[in-house]
Specification:
The chain has two domains: about 150 residues, Alpha-Beta Complex (Aspartate Aminotransferase, domain 1); about 230 residues, Type I PLP-dependent aspartate aminotransferase-like (Major domain) (Aspartate Aminotransferase, domain 2), CATH 3.40.640.10. The protein contains 13 helices and 13 strands. It is an alpha/beta fold and about 400 residues long. Helix 8 links the parallel strand 5 and strand 6. It is about 40% helix and about 15% strand. The structure holds pyridoxal-5'-phosphate. The site of pyridoxal-5'-phosphate has 13 residues, from helix 5.
Length: about 400
């Protein structure tokens, strides 16, 4: 039997990146006690008002087919949210509702690129980006970012990676895994390079509401970049509702019908009762959202404090998001080797930096998704393993 080439291109780009996490899950299921710092699933409760709306709409019969571009009630709320954020007008017709950021990235990429095109992506990058780009047939071109720049993309590095085939810059701010938050000046300088080379900027903003001291900035919010910028996000992280699969792509007006056509080919519409809940999520302030942002900030500071001063493991304070990257190169192990050893010997589950690109090598990524006691204990175990390995070298 024959298969389409997409399945060859995606072979090996999927779940093996989560192998340590999957093994941890199996061991936990078999009764082992483990501390999970592996995936970015908020542990704090979602806003009660959003859940109440979903339940009320469910019982009110909002269970029929939805508009293919997304229910107007949700698109209006998303457009309102983005307008308030930027101070610029965003119209509901610019919004395509998607099943989370992940589907948003997929439909946008499928709309913009194909075989023969190149997509440039700052490295380290989120673990699914390679497969999203590969699914279109386009080539994935990593652009190195460096720990000494706090993993911020330099315009010169971007420029050096661009060829006549480059069509899209795929950005992610705040970044998973690095926690880098690009400033308005950086966005403008990067945007200027994209302008010169006529590139689309697709920006994954799923952590936009989780910045600490840094101020969030999107290319979609910059007047001079709006015609080439697409903002993709969801309420998965901001409202602790990843299971709702509720996200969006906000596009320049002429792009929206094309993205909508791809989204309709894929799943023609979403769940109206969830769309109503998204409207409540974005139209109102929620104490739970404020608490979550404060809690992730506090946990990031606590984790950095717990690992500070070690010769064997080096961390720096993330500017946003839900993760801390720890450099374990002084131990002499790769991120992957360290993560397996940590699981086997200290019962802590983390993601190897290699799952996020070659620039993540020699690092582990720690999620801030457990309470402070568990986090302190995990940091103690990480530190003691790293220091033992370092001393033995
Ligand atoms: C950077 C990044 N983009 C996208 C996603 C997927 O988000 P969603 O649940 O909105 O599909 C995640 C989830 O961890 C993420 O970290």
């Amino acid at each position: 039997m024959r298969y389409a080439s997409i399945s060859d291109r995606l072979d090996g780009l999927g779940s093996h990146k989560w192998a340590v996490h999957v093994a941890g899950r199996q061991r936990a299921h078999a009764g082992e006690e483990l501390i999970f710092l592996s995936i970015g699933e908020p542990d704090l409760p979602p806003p009660a008002a959003v859940l109440e709306q979903a339940a009320a709409s469910l019982f009110a019969g909002r269970t029929r087919y939805a508009d293919g571009q997304g229910e107007p009630v949700a698109r209006r709320a998303i457009a309102g949210h983005l307008s308030r954020r930027s101070g610029l007008d965003v119209d509901q017709h610019q919004i395509v509702y998607t099943a989370g950021t992940q589907q948003g990235l997929f439909v946008v990429m499928a709309t913009l690129v194909e075989a023969g095109d190149e997509v440039v992506v700052p490295d380290p990058y989120y673990a699914t980006y390679e497969s999203v780009v590969a699914s279109t047939g386009a080539s994935f071109v990593p652009v190195p970012t460096l720990p000494e720049d706090d993993f911020h993309l330099r315009p010169e590095a971007l420029e050096a990676a661009i060829t006549p085939r480059t069509r899209v810059l795929l950005l992610n701010t705040p970044s998973n895994p690095t926690g880098a938050v690009l400033s308005p000046d950086e966005i403008d300088a990067i945007g200027e390079v994209c302008e010169r080379h006529d590139l689309w900027i697709v920006c994954d903003e799923v952590y936009a509401d989780l910045t600490f001291e840094a101020h969030f900035c999107s290319p979609f919010d910059r007047p001079q970049l709006r015609h080439r910028a697409i903002s993709v996000a969801s309420i998965s992280k901001s409202h602790a509702l990843p299971g709702f699969r509720a996200g969006w792509a906000a596009c320049p007006p002429e792009v929206t019908p094309r993205v909508t056509a791809v989204a309709e080919a894929m799943n023609f519409g979403s769940q109206p009762f969830i769309a109503d809940a998204v409207a409540v999520a974005l139209n109102q302030e929620h104490a739970e959202v404020v608490t979550m942002k404060r809690t992730f900030h506090e946990r990031a500071s606590a984790m950095v404090r717990a690992l500070a001063g070690s010769e064997a493991v080096k961390v720096h304070m993330p500017e946003g998001g839900m993760f801390v990257m720890a450099d374990i190169r002084p131990t002499g192990l790769s991120g992957e080797e360290f993560a397996w050893k940590l699981l086997d010997e200290r019962h802590v589950v983390v993601m190897p930096g290699e799952s996020f690109g070659s620039r993540g090598a020699g690092h582990i990524r720690l999620a801030l998704t457990v309470d402070t006691d568990a986090m302190d204990e995990a940091c103690h175990r990480i530190r003691s393993l790293a220091e033992e390995l370092h001393a033995a070298r």
